[in-house]
């Protein structure tokens, strides 16, 4: 561990659940629960929470925690035989004490978690897997989630899954936010029975409920929050699609200060043969921005090129 970075296991007083707190020397921090392998807090160097967690979020197993970054596996949405967004977000994960060598760069300040097929889950999803999740915080406060999923079946059967990092960003006001990087892409509209359309605007903006899956998106997508003068830069690897969801007035008013944008693999489910491993990575940065007349500020341009 470099400098004053630390990783601490604590029992959350309010929820009674075990979580890990990752802290970096310059002040940024992350909280990740064993329940769901779910990141609930991601704070910048000034202690500002960058993720949305609903005021009504219950931390009561087996309900999903509403907010943060949900791990949706082995199914996204309700298109399949499993519960909405799969079961991984409703299970207790364990600490992965001795993970195999890590194939991609992350950061020294990290925690490794693991979820394995339980006898109970094998009844609803009859596939043996190991799901390793590394949650890492970089010295400058970027949050990197890396998932490694391996088929460990002893038979010769492959399995398939869909996946998403269902990431609830905290925003000032959804109507002041735009998402860039998805323009001209095809998307599946969950509000229209998953029909396929092509994005027409020069950015995604929000004037009503949005629930879409953008297909084969570029490796970098940005969420620009004019009012907060903050831009989230999301980079992804191994995850072709991007989920964009805001319920507008279908849920509480508080959801107007939330935008869910997350890297995903949905249109083409991932297939793993026994012994095969899949890797999907999402890296997010929060940078100060001023965005007017199409001009990004120099700091953002610098960060976007160096990330
Ligand atoms: O309430 P949940 O199960 O966490 O899901 C939240 C939303 O997640 C989105 O990905 C779905 O497309 C929405 O339909 C759903 O409402």
From TrEMBL:
| Source organism of this protein record | Zea mays
Q: What is this protein called?
A: glucose-6-phosphate 1-epimerase
Instruction: Give the residues the record marks as binding substrate.
Output: 66, 84, 89
The reactions it catalyses are:
alpha-D-glucose 6-phosphate = beta-D-glucose 6-phosphate
Q: Which domain of life is it from?
A: Eukaryota
Task: Please indicate if the UniProt record lists S-adenosyl-L-methionine as a keyword.
Answer: no
SUPFAM superfamilies linked = Galactose mutarotase-like (SSF74650)
Give the main EC class: isomerase
- What's one Pfam family here? Aldose_epim
Q: Name one GO biological process term.
A: carbohydrate metabolic process
Q: Which GO terms describe its molecular function?
A: carbohydrate binding; glucose-6-phosphate 1-epimerase activity
**Which keywords, in A-to-Z order, does the entry hold?**
Isomerase
Query: Where exactly are the transmembrane stretches of this chain?
Result: none
Q: Supply the PANTHER family for this chain.
A: APOSPORY-ASSOCIATED PROTEIN C-RELATED, GLUCOSE-6-PHOSPHATE 1-EPIMERASE
The Enzyme Commission number assigned here is 5.1.3.15
InterPro entries per UniProt:
Aldose_1/G6P_1-epimerase, G6P_1-epimerase, Gal_mutarotase_sf_dom, GH-type_carb-bd
Membership in a protein family: Belongs to the glucose-6-phosphate 1-epimerase family.
Record keyword Translocase present: no
